[in-house]
Amino acid sequence: MSAKLRGGESPTMDAVRLRRVNRRLAQGLGGELADLYVDSRETSPREAYRRPSRRHFLNRLASDIRRPGFAMVIAETDGLVGCAFGFPIRGDGFYWPGFDGALPHSIEQLTESGSVFAITDILVRPHPQDQDVARRLQERLLTDQQATLGATLADRADHPTLTALRSWGWLDLGEIWRPISATVLRVLVLPVGELTAVRLEGLAHDAWTRWPG
User: Fold this and answer.
1) Using CB atoms within 10 A as the burial measure, which of 18, 25, 33, 124 is most buried?
2) Sorted alphabetically, which InterPro entries does this protein's record hold (predicted)?
3) pTM of the entire predicted model
């Protein structure tokens, strides 16, 4: 997961429409989604972090599309300006191996109940309303899936993404080590509803104390 906030010319917020797309349509949009990925991940030469390639994104998208429960929401004006997609996290705990420390009991309970949805990516073509578009996309996707909690992973070296996610309401939960990619990832969660937010408030504070920045 990565994200980029930047200024630029764009249509007004009222012109942005959100739409759910099924697997077949998501596959057909592959090229446009890859273009969106490149546009939303533009980095300056001064940034040390380099995001995965267009090909890597397309491979990951194809893998996600095959997952049970895959869902996507796109944002459009006269063309594609954003998207969010992911899949429900199974209750068998497959998403959490490598978590640093004990997984909080409340997260285990929500996962076992089938209430957690993993958002793989939130992509927004840069423009002044990108933060609002990102919030609308993530909220629509989680609401459509009747999820109580969103979860996502970001490379801990990808500071622009982490900053963007936090500005969209995501809370730090901890870190996960993925041996296959030899990468340490930050785990962030997005509560849906006030009750879930209250349950996770203390966890987010503890995680921020352990892994500041």
Assistant:
1) 124
2) Acyl_CoA_acyltransferase
3) 0.83
